[in-house]
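User: Sequence for histidine kinase below. Tokens please.
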Amino acid sequence: MTGRALPLLLIVVSLFWPSPLLAQGAVEFEPLGVAQGLDVKVVPSLLVDRSGLLWVATREGLYRYDGYEARRMPVGKGGPGELPDGDLRALFEDSHGRIWVASNTAGLSRYDPKSGSFRHYRHDVADPNTLSHASIYGMAEDHSGHLWVGSQIGLNRLDPATGIVERYFHDPDDPRSLSHDYAYTVHADRAGNLWVATVGGGISIRRPGRTGFDRIDLSVHLAERPEINDVFAFAEGRDGSMFVGTRSGLVEIGPGAREVRQIPLIPESKTARIITDLAWGPRGRLWMTTMAKGVLVYDPDDGSVVPANPELPGQPGQLPALPQMNLVISGRRVFVGTWGSGVYLARLPEERFGFLDADSETSHLRNRNVTAILSGEGSRPWVGTFGGGVQPLAEDRKRVEKLPGTPSQLNTDGVLAMTRRQSGEIAVGTNHGLWLLSAGGTPLERISGDSGRGLGDGYVTSLAEDDRGVLWVGVGGSGLFRLSPGGEQFDSLQHDPHRVDSLSGNYISGLLDLGKGLLLVGTRSNGLNLCRTEVWSCQRFTVAEGLGHHSVTGLYRSDSGYLWVGTNGGGLHQFALTGGGQLRLLRRWTERDGLLSDGVAGIIEDNDGSLWISSHRGLTRLQPATGAVANHVAESGLPVTHFNVRAAARDEHYLYFGGLGGVVKVPPGTPMRERDPSPVRMIELTRPDGQGGLNIQPATALSAYSMRWGEMLSVSFAVLDYARGQHQYQYRLDEESDWQALGERHVVTLLELSPGVHRLSIRGRDAFGNWSVSPSLDLEVIPPLWMTLEFRVGGLLLLLVGTWGWHRHRVRGLRRRNRRLEKLQREKELALQRVRESREELSQAHTGLRNLTHRMQSTREEQRQLIARELHDELGQTLTATKISLQRAGGAADAGAAGGLLASAIAMIDSMIAQVRNISLSLRPPLLDEAGLVEALRVHLDSVSDRAGVQIGLVTQFDLSWIEGDLRTTIFRLVQEAVNNAIRHACASRIEVRLRYDAQRLILEVEDNGCGFEPVEVWARARRGEHLGLLGMLERVHGVCGEMHFDSSPGSGCRVTAKIPVLNHAEAPILE
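Assistant: Structure tokens for histidine kinase:
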């Protein structure tokens, strides 16, 4: 086969071979986020980050979209909180979760999701370690963490840690250099190779451990025009091959770049061949955006290339007739960025649902609201609509057939229930009564409340025939009716308020024959009944017995024998029928367990024992054995989501579910695929900034956050499924608490959180009914000082200390009062003692006074006797001798003898003069008045020392010449008496006299080394008047307002201290 024949064959195969993608219906695209702020035009790049958030790079700036709101990042001069340019080219997320933003004129910016700030990398002509150009394109991260950045001129390797850039350029003289300077995008493959797509130079590959680049010239390998060397996109295959999007279509480069081949596209037009982006989708399909043909899908297994949507661009469900710039596939969602019409979203269908579309003319349905379906093994199904009667399905199950001769009244009735009787007849319940049809659908008769057959008035809502051929008819509001085989009249069975074994209510909503004379009856407002038909009696099972809701909407018996009861608001119930014919509730499933809705419409069992449950929100598939749940809604490809009660049935070909818009058909045995829950993320934290504004912090990358106590914090969050369906949210502040319901609100405001750490978690339910939990956020509430543990402990300690102090103070006060009382008592006793002592002292004083008076008189007499003796013994004798000498001189014969006698008399007169002088000095030395105190003391003490043979020292400080008058005499007499006492009584050998002045007092100390004495005994004798000298000294000191102390003990000498105040003396020296 020639090289040109192979592409033609692939084209033919792709046109006529049924692609699995097309077999399940076209992928429908719809605009995304226009009403939520994502109203943009040109979208060069899209990114779904690791959290699931969508980032959109546009000509108008960078947007972050969470399904609820599109937030535009600020654009300004390039500060840390803004982008320097709003004309963006590309987005890339590195291994650390940081987002790199390439701009057209301002280089590269790195966004940190934790701080919400940018770091900018610019081109500097003067610095070779900066980016090679200001216009940046694609990026990739190698195994070492370096970022490779393509630009309009050159390739750059950026070290994110240092910001240093190494540049690479095309060198015509170096075959190992970059093949072209225009580096459009970069890709790092699993083997560590770096692929560089250039515009005009094909591909350059940098391999680990090698210098320079290997080049791949696509035009040479494929014998194509040079345009094929304009490369825009890479997609690495599972086997190591590389798929390349070029200006001339899709190219595959085999592992090791040993083989290069071009994959033909449809149609082979020049514009349609421009591939702008590539991305791998589910089931190993390669998706690609084009300039003119929308999105194409390539299947490597069979080589087919088909459009994701076969309609022409611009048609409903298709992309606009504009260039498609890029695409991102996240799970089963396809995001497409366009040139001129913003962002589009498509959801890839999960199951291949058949659909009888009531809005399609080929379905032939007379009404679009399918309310009843009848099917069974070996018989064709019948479809009943509300307002269109009954119609049988054709053999191919793709349309209904028209029955000729059907009365118009039946064709316009609202069908609510159908059942096939043992005879083959078909009973049809409508809003106008009961129709009986032949097996082929020919009307036999119509029975209503006016027919006289005993049937009650109202809608016939439920039908069942038991194994005995009895037809049971439930009528809304009139109760249950029974028609026996061959009978004409209906028996009425109704609620009797006086009988507990009657039906619980008269509005019958469901019937299920259980055989063995048992009939299960559901009511709209009064719960469930298990009735025995032979002898009529019913066992009621209501909300009080565990039913989730009083309105029963579906009854079903599975092959395992379990009874399944659906309610309108209480979920699905699993019952077992005991051997005694009693109902036993085993379990209840609700939205909390994953059901789409607590309102159950229909129940059908699949081949694997799983249950298909229809509701007003879609289809749920439940595997009771494991609890696994898979939900199907419009976003997962379900063509109808609002299903009607009891409109569910199955045969060997399909499971049928009727709803508003037609019939959904599910092949039995369809594999059950559990859907991964959509991620739930906290988006933003908002709190007042204290200046009238708001502080907004991105939250997707945060694990901890601090706030002050009393602050308000709003947390926004989102289920990132980007679906139109309703979401449900719950939150809690610690892992042990119950979830608090928020409904559809996606913001929670926290107020007055207690101090400490709260672990905030958000639980969200996506449009598919799956619950997931966000990563937790530790909220640290910082308390004010008065709420801190330290403050409280300190306060408690302070309180304890204060209490203890108060108690101690109180006890001390009591003790102090006790001591005062005790002191008063002691003072009282002391006063009494002093009174007694005073009396004794007074007595002693009287005695002492008498003794003192006697002693004074004695002393005076002694002094007089001493003076008299001195005068008599000394002066008297001397005078007598002098008189005799003078008389003899007068009678002397010669002058010589007379002169000798005169000389002797003169000598005796001199002696008398000396004696008189001594007597006068002993009474008051004249030197005290002539030379002053210090000199008089020195002369006196020297005289005493000489006479007594005792060493006496005198020490004075400062000039004491200013001491005069009575003070001088007092000090002299004190020294005189103290020294005399020390000599006479203490037997001292050394006496020290010290006199000093301390600016307020004269201090006199007389210290000896004598025998000492007991001061108490001496004072006692002094008080009795026995120590006249001591009393005289005390009186002299007290006379000048001084004080006197004695420091002595037996054998330790004595020190006498007198302190005499001399305040404000005019001539006293001033001491500092």
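The chain has eleven helices and 70 strands.
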